[in-house]
């Protein structure tokens, strides 16, 4: 009897996660994927290839880079290297979600499967909403959102493929700008700890600067170097606050 | 074989190249405790990485936007962020304002 109630609760949290598909971030991502399908068509991919790529890679920057190297007829090893460099960021993104999402009993296999659905949009969604979900149901909640988001966008690519081969420049420009400005405001809004805001500012500055200095490893250096700098500055700040608290007592 | 080759590239150079890092993230993250020092660092690195990618999308865009002036993109994003902060961190404001400014600017420049 108890397990039956438990299962029903899991289902209800799964559905609750699914409802996230109507949120602003999900709608913005869908608009971006309409733009992606136009880009894929322009680059000579078939509808099936564009859909399989969306389902299996599920990271918009990586998909753009992969198509870019395929159009340039790069060797498969060169494509792999370019894509894998851009996807290294997945590791800290996934790692930072895990302690909040899992329970002691969550099987690793389930987490490995669900990690596929973590990309920037679902990472931001998880950072914002997981803390409001009771811990035993967080996996169900994320699964509901993440899987729905991925499959909906695959359907959007399938439907919009070929419908719009080229947008008017004004619309194409606005579609392209949606993703970065959405990331800027939603990541700042979901930042609870000062260290995240610090890393945000340092990343914004270092990204374009290092793109000029070391174009091949810019994002990697900006992330590891900038993130470590933010952590050290924040740690210094926390230690000093602790010390002044102790002397005040 | 020829028609399957693209799918092989997508699976090897796309799916595997990306999901390896997700799997490593699960393995690394499962050892982290909430509110541990290591998690602070991991969060900082993840945020800096994502924001570096984001800032590059605005400063060095590909496609249509690469023909638009940098001051317009930076101005739209900067004013948008300012109003987003002033509005009490309303994400809708942070998205709508830069897009409206960008469209108005592009239209004014005769795009």
TrEMBL record, chain A:
It comes from Rhizobium deserti. Pfam families: AzlC. This is Branched-chain amino acid ABC transporter permease. InterPro entries: Brnchd-chn_aa_trnsp_permease (IPR011606). The keyword Transmembrane applies. Keywords: Membrane, Transmembrane, Transmembrane helix. The chain crosses the membrane at residues 21-39, 51-71, 78-98, 110-127, 139-164, 170-188, 195-213, 219-236. It comes from the Bacteria.
TrEMBL record, chain B:
It holds the Pfam family AzlD. The chain crosses the membrane at residues 6-28, 40-58, 70-86, 93-110. Keywords: Membrane, Transmembrane, Transmembrane helix. InterPro entries: Brnchd-chn_aa_trnsp_AzlD. It comes from the Bacteria. This is AzlD domain-containing protein.
């Amino acid at each position: 009897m108890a397990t039956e109630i438990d299962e029903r609760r899991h289902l209800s949290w799964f559905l609750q996660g699914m409802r996230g598909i109507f949120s602003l971030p999900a709608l913005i991502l869908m608009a971006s994927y309409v733009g992606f399908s136009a880009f894929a068509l322009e680059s000579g991919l078939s509808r099936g290839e564009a859909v399989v790529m969306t389902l299996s890679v599920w990271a918009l920057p990586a998909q753009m880079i992969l198509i870019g190297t395929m159009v340039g007829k790069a060797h498969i090893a060169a494509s792999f290297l370019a894509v894998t460099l851009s996807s290294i960021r997945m590791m800290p993104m996934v790692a930072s979600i895990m302690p909040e999402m899992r329970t002691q009993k969550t099987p690793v296999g389930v987490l490995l499967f669900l990690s596929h659905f973590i990309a920037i949009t679902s990472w931001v969604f998880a950072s914002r909403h997981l803390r409001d979900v009771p811990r035993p149901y967080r996996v169900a909640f994320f699964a509901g959102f993440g899987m729905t988001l991925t499959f909906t966008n695959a359907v959007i690519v399938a439907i919009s493929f070929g419908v719009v081969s080229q947008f008017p420049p004004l619309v194409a420009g606005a579609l392209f700008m949606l993703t970065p400005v959405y990331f800027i405001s939603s990541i700042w809004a979901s930042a609870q700890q000062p260290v995240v805001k610090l890393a945000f500012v340092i990343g914004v500055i270092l990204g374009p600067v290092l793109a000029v200095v070391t174009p091949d490893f810019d994002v990697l250096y900006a992330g590891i170097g900038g993130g470590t700098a933010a952590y050290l500055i924040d740690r210094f700040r926390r230690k000093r606050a602790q010390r002044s608290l102790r002397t005040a007592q | 074989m020829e028609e399957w080759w693209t799918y092989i590239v997508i699976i090897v150079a796309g799916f595997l190249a990306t999901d390896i890092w997700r799997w490593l993230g699960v393995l690394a993250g499962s050892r982290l405790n909430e509110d541990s020092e290591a998690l602070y660092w991991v969060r900082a690195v993840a945020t800096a990485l994502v924001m570096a990618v984001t800032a590059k999308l605005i400063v060095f865009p590909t496609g249509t936007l690469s023909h638009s002036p940098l001051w317009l993109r930076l101005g739209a994003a900067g004013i948008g962020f300012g109003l987003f902060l002033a509005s009490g961190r309303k994400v809708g404001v942070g998205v709508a304002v830069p897009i409206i400014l960008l469209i108005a600017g592009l239209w004014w420049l005769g795009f």
